[in-house]
């Protein structure tokens, strides 16, 4: 009887392992192509497996060909100003520091708020300097596994506003409702010519291998409550319509390029209802970008915000509450949040402690991506060392295979 039970048990075990092997073969697919990379935005980088359509795909993290979607989820980056980005020696030093930290991304200017296009030096400069300078920087970063984001200041463009009044934003004198005054710093967010001009720059940068285009100053200027001016709008079109229209246009224009898009927004947009009278309603903007970056700088918040007496000295609370509000607003699109954090000092001196607290607040909101802002590009590198060992692996962008062979 015991021998009979043993035989039955052996048969059952054989059947189990046979069925398990069939199940495993059916659910681990090595034919997943690079073109299907768009599914990586659901990827959990804690594991080496991707679950999609009831199948498990084994991921080769070291040999990923294109990081655009997968890597973008875990971006931990810093802003590099134009002065440093165009200085080879300084770029090399900064990239070396990045290699010693958990940072894996850089944000460089494509067009500044003056309207100056970075990597060009004047009217007589060769037309291909933009291509050469930016291309060199992108290639250098990619060789080190660094994700490159190009920041494009869109509607704040003082050169264009002054040189062509047709494109300048129009203010109306509140007193009489008729007198029109041209802005010297802002161009018209309703103008499709302005949209096209900025997208031409974005397309050129995308062709050079940029991973992501980040649209900054995608808004109207702020006006004081007692301002003498009001902003002239188009008939039947609101400020939100203008900003949404631009991002929708940008998404369509860049569709054929292997590049993601993101937008910078005011920190308060995460909490305050509406658009802050600048056209930034994140519940509508989110539909036309891959990532949204609220500029949540604790030093910019007033006393009492989120019940905090001194926001500048309590960075964790400000970042956490702001992102929590944003996630509630955005619902299923909350994963697209990638905030700008403060690594500069105003009233209160920011050190390793304050930077780490902000990063922890992001993580505690179940978000993994963030960017550090310092206008001088001087960062607290010690705050971003060994944050999550094993999580932020460098990706070999030149790799030839996407998945490991079984």
Automatic annotation (TrEMBL):
<dbReference type="InterPro" id="IPR017853">
    <property type="entry name" value="GH"/>
</dbReference>
<dbReference type="InterPro" id="IPR025275">
    <property type="entry name" value="DUF4015"/>
</dbReference>
<feature type="domain" description="DUF4015">
    <location>
        <begin position="77"/>
        <end position="379"/>
    </location>
</feature>
<protein>
    <recommendedName>
        <fullName>DUF4015 domain-containing protein</fullName>
    </recommendedName>
</protein>
<dbReference type="Pfam" id="PF13200">
    <property type="entry name" value="DUF4015"/>
</dbReference>
């Amino acid at each position: 009887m015991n021998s009979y039970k043993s035989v039955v048990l052996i048969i059952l075990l054989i059947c189990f392992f046979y069925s398990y092997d069939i199940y495993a073969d059916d659910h681990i697919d090595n034919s997943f192509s690079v073109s299907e990379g768009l599914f990586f935005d659901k990827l959990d980088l804690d594991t080496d497996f991707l679950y999609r359509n009831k199948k498990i795909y084994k991921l080769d993290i070291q040999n990923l060909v294109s990081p655009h979607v997968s890597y973008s989820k875990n971006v931990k980056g810093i802003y590099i100003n134009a002065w440093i980005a165009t200085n080879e020696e300084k770029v090399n030093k900064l990239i070396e520091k990045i290699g010693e930290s958990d940072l894996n991304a850089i944000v460089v200017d494509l067009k500044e708020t003056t309207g100056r296009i970075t990597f060009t030096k004047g009217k007589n400069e060769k037309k291909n300097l933009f291509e050469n300078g930016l291309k060199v920087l992108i290639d250098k970063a990619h060789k080190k596994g660094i994700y490159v984001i190009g920041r494009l200041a869109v509607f704040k463009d003082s050169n264009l506003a002054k040189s062509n009044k047709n494109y300048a934003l129009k203010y109306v004198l509140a007193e009489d409702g008729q007198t029109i005054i041209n802005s010297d710093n802002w161009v018209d967010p309703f103008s499709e010519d302005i949209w096209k001009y900025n997208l031409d720059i974005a397309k050129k940068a995308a062709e050079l291998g940029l991973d992501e285009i980040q649209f900054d100053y995608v808004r109207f200027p702020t006006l004081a409550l007692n301002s003498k001016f009001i902003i002239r709008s188009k008939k039947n079109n609101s400020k939100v319509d203008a900003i949404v229209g631009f991002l929708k246009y940008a998404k369509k224009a860049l569709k054929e390029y292997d590049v993601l898009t993101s937008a910078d927004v005011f920190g308060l947009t995460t909490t305050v209802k509406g658009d802050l009278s600048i056209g930034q309603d994140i519940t509508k903007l989110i539909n036309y970008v891959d990532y949204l970056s609220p500029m949540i700088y604790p030093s910019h918040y007033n006393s009492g915000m989120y019940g905090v007496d001194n926001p500048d000295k309590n960075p964790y609370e400000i970042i956490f509450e702001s992102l929590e509000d944003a996630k509630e607003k955005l619902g299923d699109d909350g994963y697209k949040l990638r905030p700008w954090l403060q690594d500069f000092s105003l009233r209160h001196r920011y050190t390793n402690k304050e930077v780490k607290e902000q990063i922890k607040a992001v993580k505690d909101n179940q978000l993994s991506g963030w960017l550090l802002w310092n206008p001088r590009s001087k960062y607290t590198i010690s705050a971003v060392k060994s944050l999550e060992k094993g999580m932020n692996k460098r990706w070999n962008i030149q790799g030839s295979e996407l998945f490991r062979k079984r």
